[in-house]
Write a structure and sequence with these properties.
The protein is mainly beta. It is built from three helices and 24 strands.
Length: about 400
């Protein structure tokens, strides 16, 4: 289990601590790390709880044991919020302890209980290759391609809270992912730690000239708009974002993919279609191995994430994470996506429900939802902005910060 903790520890602490809390770097000896107010960090499994002495002991990764005292100022943190005090400690619980050296010994100032689901999860790190409506595909550092589903329980973590959901991911973005394998074989992301691509940095495996990125089986990835289709030569050309053109041959093994499933072969290619092409360098040129047709309506859409405020007959109103209020129309083309298909239309939305929305701005200025990714409100959780007594809006954001005024 401790091998899994090595990768999971950062994400688990971020999930458990309030936003804005400091995460301390490992000390060179691995024994603890210095943080604000001379706190040291220790991680391990609880092996003893002394209710009389108000102390507990953990066994660290290397096998050494450390005992901590607690007092009335000791704080307790967990992702679920159910770990609220000393009496919630259990044997074999995996914890992170931020402690201070006192004359009597180590005094625990903050105790973080790690999420067992996170600790038991599989791990992967790499770059985002593509983003779908309720999933994303990444290429790991080992060159493996993984497609990960997300749901309303998937936690997104990033510096400055710049990545709050699937809609904020970008191709080429570095990610660390904790995921579980579902019964149907699909991969469900439990936590995504996302970081921006550094300026001037190319994704792992990308050629120095920026012309493509290395994937499994020495495939290169290209993206752009189809500008020419040669049915005789069985080839097509795309124009990339930078303006350069690239031509690909196809053969009987070339595979075709699209969200709708209607893009099944070379004859379905159309001019101005936006595609991602995974190709292999052959003596005769680039051979397309996989061609993915992207949904233009989704590509052109605006994005927003937040909570449902009210539901109308053919529209709903949401409050975004930035505090902006948006009213979105829906029509028979609006796609509703949710875990377990619990939300299939406007009638299934609920006030307080978390949503991610892709929408377009119509000629009359109204907003039309193209896709709605909906998640249930957590048990015991109140909608953002609602006062703890449920009586009305609270003018503070989660975490206690004053809410910003909506943009005029």
């Amino acid at each position: 289990m401790f091998k899994k903790i090595i990768f999971a520890m950062l994400i688990a602490v971020l999930l458990a601590l309030p936003f804005g809390a400091s995460v301390y770097a490992d000390g060179p000896d691995g024994e603890g790390s210095q943080g604000p107010r001379d706190l040291e960090r220790f991680g391990g499994k609880v092996t003893d709880i002394n209710s009389t002495a108000r102390s507990f002991t953990i066994q660290k990764r290397g096998g050494d044991s450390v005992t901590f005292d607690i007092d009335e100022d000791t704080r307790y943190r967990s992702r679920s919020g159910e770990f609220t005090g000393f009496d919630d400690l259990e044997l074999d619980m995996v914890v992170i302890v931020f402690a201070k050296e006192e004359e009597s010994g180590l005094l625990a100032k903050v105790v973080v209980a790690l999420d067992q689901a996170i600790l038991d999860a599989e791990r992967a790190a790499g770059r985002v290759v593509s983003i779908g409506t309720n999933s994303f595909t990444m290429q790991t550092r080992a060159g493996e391609t993984l497609t990960l589903q997300v749901d309303d329980q998937t936690r997104f973590i990033s510096r400055g809270r710049t990545v709050n959901g699937l809609e904020d991911l970008e191709e080429g973005m570095r990610v660390g992912v904790l995921y579980t394998i579902q019964e149907d074989g699909s991969l469900l992301a439990k936590a995504v730690l996302a970081g921006r691509q550094n300026a001037g940095e190319r994704p792992e495996g990308q050629r120095p000239d920026g012309e493509g990125s290395q994937g499994p089986r020495d495939l290169e990835r290209f993206g752009g708009k189809v500008t020419d289709i040669n049915s005789t030569a069985r080839s097509f050309t795309i124009q990339k974002r930078g303006g350069d053109s690239v031509t690909f041959d196809i053969d009987e093994d070339t595979r075709y993919r699209s969200r709708s499933g209607e893009f099944t072969g070379f004859d379905d290619l159309e001019l101005d279609m936006v595609v991602i092409v995974f190709a292999k360098e052959e003596e005769s040129g680039l051979l397309a191995k996989v061609v993915v047709a992207l949904d233009q309506a989704i590509l052109d859409a605006e994005r927003a994430a937040g909570r449902v405020v009210s539901i109308g007959t053919n529209s709903f109103t949401m409050q975004t994470r930035a505090g902006e209020t948006l009213t979105l129309q829906v029509d028979d083309q609006t796609r509703f996506i949710s875990r377990g298909r619990t939300v299939n239309g406007l009638e299934d939305l609920e006030e307080g429900m978390r949503v991610g929305v892709l929408y377009t701005i119509q000629e009359d200025g109204s907003l039309l939802a193209k896709a709605v990714l909906a998640g249930r409100q957590n048990a015991g959780e109140r909608p953002e902005g609602q006062r703890p007594d449920g009586e009305g809006p609270d003018q503070r954001e989660p975490g206690g910060r004053p809410a910003e005024e909506p943009a005029s």
